[in-house]
């Protein structure tokens, strides 16, 4: 039975499509600026089962762009903050919380944790990001990945495309190169922007560990990326119910 709080989406999509979402299980790795809003949009679409993954804690520098980042949540695990929020959105949500950083060698086990309908990659460090993507491909799990939203300010340039079509994004370039080493060239949907980044807005520092640098960000760009990523997941899932809409990459 479709709950009342999903009645507006039921009106838009129809019973079969909403029920398809309610019966889906989505894995979201990375709950920062992109992943936090992405996870929320997926939950608000009525997806019935979710696994969320993030080992980081809220830092006040996250406050300009991340859903879990508030003064009241500083120092708390992002996964636990997001879990409380998602369950407040949908108390019936079946939620698996992995509040630990996932190393490269752990990605296969993560993908085997449940029978996932879709995977979402919002990881912002290269090696685990690529390992996560490869693990999804190896298991035949549909995946959408967020490329770099940092340093970007123009929302009109954000694009959904196959990884092979991405360009003018440094993170996408490095991801493609690593994936090619695993003989993966196509079949992964990405959200990216070719907008040029001002190098003066990037600081190389050990404080960014496990990343190598800190990049300037604005409030809306990670959220736009996250909503676009979520849109790919949601549309891919409800189209399995046979709805005739425009193609999703």
Automatic annotation (TrEMBL):
GO terms for molecular function: tRNA threonylcarbamoyladenosine dehydratase; ubiquitin-like modifier activating enzyme activity. Signal peptide: none annotated. Residues 12-240 form the THIF-type NAD/FAD binding fold domain. Pfam families: ThiF (PF00899). One of its GO terms (biological process) is cyclic threonylcarbamoyladenosine biosynthetic process. Gene3D superfamilies: NAD(P)-binding Rossmann-like Domain. This is tRNA threonylcarbamoyladenosine dehydratase.
């Amino acid at each position: 039975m479709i709950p009342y709080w999903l009645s507006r989406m039921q009106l838009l999509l129809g019973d079969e499509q909403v029920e398809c979402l309610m019966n889906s299980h989505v894995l979201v790795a990375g709950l920062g600026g992109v992943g936090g809003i992405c996870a929320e949009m997926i939950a608000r679409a009525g997806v019935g089962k979710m696994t969320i993954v993030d080992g980081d804690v809220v830092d006040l520098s996250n406050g300009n762009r991340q859903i879990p980042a508030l003064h009241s949540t500083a120092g708390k695990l992002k996964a636990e903050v997001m879990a409380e929020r998602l369950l407040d959105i949908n108390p019936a949500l079946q939620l698996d919380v992995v509040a630990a950083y996932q190393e490269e060698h752990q990605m296969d086990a993560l993908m085997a944790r449940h029978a996932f309908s879709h995977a979402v990659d919002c990881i912002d460090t290269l090696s685990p990001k690529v390992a996560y993507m490869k693990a999804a491909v190896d298991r035949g799990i549909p995946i959408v990945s967020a490329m770099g939203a940092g340093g970007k300010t123009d929302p009109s340039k954000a694009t959904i495309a196959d990884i092979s079509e991405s360009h003018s994004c440094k993170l996408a370039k490095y991801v493609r190169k690593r994936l090619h080493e695993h003989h993966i060239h196509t079949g992964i949907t990405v959200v990216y922007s070719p907008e040029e980044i001002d190098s003066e807005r990037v600081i190389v520092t050990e404080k960014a560990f496990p990343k190598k640098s800190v990049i300037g960000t604005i409030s809306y760009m990670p959220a736009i990326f996250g909503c676009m990523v979520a849109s790919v997941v949601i549309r891919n899932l409800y189209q399995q119910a046979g709805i005739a809409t425009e193609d999703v990459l």
